[in-house]
Amino acid sequence: MKWQPPPPNVQYAVTVIIGVLVIATIAVIVLKKSHPDRNYRELDSRIRTWWLITALFAGVLVLSKGMALAFFAFISFLALKEYLSLIPTRRADRRVLFWAYLAIPVQYWWVYTEWYGMFIIFIPVYMFLYLPMRMVLKGQTDGFLRAAGTLHWGMMTTVFSLSHAAFLLVLPKEGNPAAGGAGLVLYLVCLTELNDVAQYVWGKSFGRHKVVPVVSPNKTWEGLIGGVATTTLLAVLTAPYLTPMNHRHALMAGIIIGLGGFMGDITVSALKRDLKIKDSSSMLPGHGGILDRVDSLTCTAPLFLHFVRYLYF
Amino acid sequence: MNHFLRYLFFVLIVRPVILIILGINVRHPDRLLAGMPSIVVANHNSHLDTMVLMTLFPLQFLKKIRPVAASDYFLKNRCLAWFALKIIGIVPIKRRVSDKGEDVLAPCSEALAQGHILIFFPEGTRGEPERMASFKSGIARLAEKHPDIPVIPVFMHGLGKALPKGEWLPVPFFCDAAVGEALYRSGSRWEFMQQLDAAMKSLASEISAAPWE
Asked: Which of A77, A85, A94 lies closest to B210 in CB terms?
């Protein structure tokens, strides 16, 4: 198969992202120079990890559809592995967990072949029925419900939900020929990540009133509202270039991504509180683990896919 | 030629499996002393333990790293013996003394004399997954013979979940390895074993292990 360059607007978008990272990197260098007494290690490693993520993500998006889907599948694999390593599991279910991992390439194969019907039922129906059946056949009933329930929740979050971001990639190009599916993926992923940053910055600057103090003491109403407003503004401004959406729909998409990102974030926070841990792992320096990075996306990806798909595809 | 095969095996199979399929969180990797002979002492749950410990060192030291392994298990047939000796590079030792006065640890001393890094599992066997059995005192005798060589305790968690004894199918899990401060033998055998035990317990407490029953 001959390599095709990505649609023009995707190329522009990638350029803009790299530009933003360059500015951020310079800003950190200037900060370090002007306050040599302060410790910027956390910020430093955070930026470095952002460069790595961007390089990988943009790289596979430019290379080919297959590579991009393999990349998403790998992210699902890392997220599921992290999840299964954190939660209590039963010795008897070792083989069952192996089957759960095998579901990842299969799920992304449905995306690759653009078989929407199978993509949308494979995990909620077939895996939902198959994995508990394997557990039952092992014959250990102690902790069965907890094992089956936690495994299914993990599959839905790390495999099913994340594969929705990948499905954007195979949506027909006709929606916005200048951007195609890759444009939608960039739109979703960038807005979700920027939303995280915006909520953090607004919260740090003006945060007074806590939203859910028990789950996540750093989340404030000021951060949430400021973040959602910023995300929505950016969503409306960039929609004509990257998506087929009109202004009204882009406004709704921005609110969905802003609120969805918040929900995904605090859901993973609740999970970590329940398991009594801080970061899901130390895999990404400055960010914590994979789950900490994709937490918002597990919520925004399915919401956004179904929103645009219902309206335009 | 042989070293080339060994290198290929570690670059193409061991490192990708350990770092990508499994993934390890290492605590205090700086406490490993790569450039000099040492005895790395770890708990043993899985065949993967050796691979993880060997992966903790930079690839350039591969030649020097020698897991100490039971000859009755790893040399039981010719194929396995070739693989264990030439590819993994084990130092084979006997688990039982056949005639009195025989020094079963002599091959270990030889390797240390050559400047090698030994990997030692004082439990003697993999045992029950994710349960640490009490350490046998052979390590104290080895340390007594080499009081100037650092003994570095490493506690690993999760590998017994990924590939327990008696299973052939590895299942991916993130694993933890916590490296402790170097110990040197001084005082009695019993005191050294107490020190080692305390070090392992404190390393184990650094790791938050998810329940596995």
From this structure: A85
- d(CA B87, CA B62) in angstroms, rounded, equals 11
Q: What is the pLDDT of residues A242-293, one digit of tens each?
A: 999 999 999 999 999 999 999 999 999 999 889 888 766 666 655 668 898 8
One DSSP character per residue, chain A reads ----PPPHHHHHHHHHHHHHHHHHHHHHHHHHHH-TTS--HHHHHHHHHHHHHHHHHHHHHHH-HHHHHHHHHHHHHHHHHHHHHHS-B-GGGHHHHHHHHHHHHHHHHHHHTT-HHHHHHIIIIIIHHHHHHHHHHHT--TTHHHHHHHHHHHHIIIIIIHHHHHHGGGS-GGG-TTTHHHHHHHHHHHHHHHHHHHHHHHHHHH--SBSSTTT-TT-BHHHHHHHHHHHHHHHHHHHHHHSS--HHHHHHHHHHHHHHHHHHHHHHHHHHHHHT-SSS-SSBTTTBSHHHHHTTHHHHHHHHHHHHHHHH-
Contact B169 A86 (CB under 8 A): no
| pLDDT tens digits along A43-77 | 888 888 889 989 998 888 888 889 999 999 999 99
Using a CB-CB distance cutoff of 8 angstroms, which residues of chain A are in contact with residue B175? 85
Alpha-carbon dihedral A10, A14, A20, A23, rounded to 10 degrees: -140
Query: What does the pLDDT profile of chain B (213 residues) look like in tens digits?
Result: 688 899 999 999 999 999 999 999 899 999 998 889 999 999 999 999 999 999 999 999 998 999 999 998 899 899 999 999 999 999 999 887 777 777 888 999 999 999 999 999 999 888 787 788 888 888 999 999 999 999 999 999 999 999 998 889 999 999 999 999 999 988 889 999 999 999 999 999 888 777 777
Q: What's the ipTM?
A: 0.88
E strand map for B62-127: 65-70, 91-93, 117-120
Query: Residue A107 class from Cβ within 10 Å (0-12 exposed, 13-18 middle, 19+ buried)?
Result: buried
φ and ψ of B157, to 5 deg: -130, 145
Closest Cβ opposite residue A283 in set B23, B158, B210: B23
Beta-bridge mates of residue B119:
B40, B67
Q: Do A81 and B167 touch (CB under 8 A)?
A: no
A282 in B contact zone (CB under 8 Å): yes
- Residue B176, φ and ψ in degrees, nearest 5: -115, 145
CA angle A268, A69, A176 (to 5 degrees): 100
With an 8 Å Cβ cutoff, are A276 and B208 in contact? yes
Cβ of residue B158 closer than 8 Å to a chain A Cβ: yes
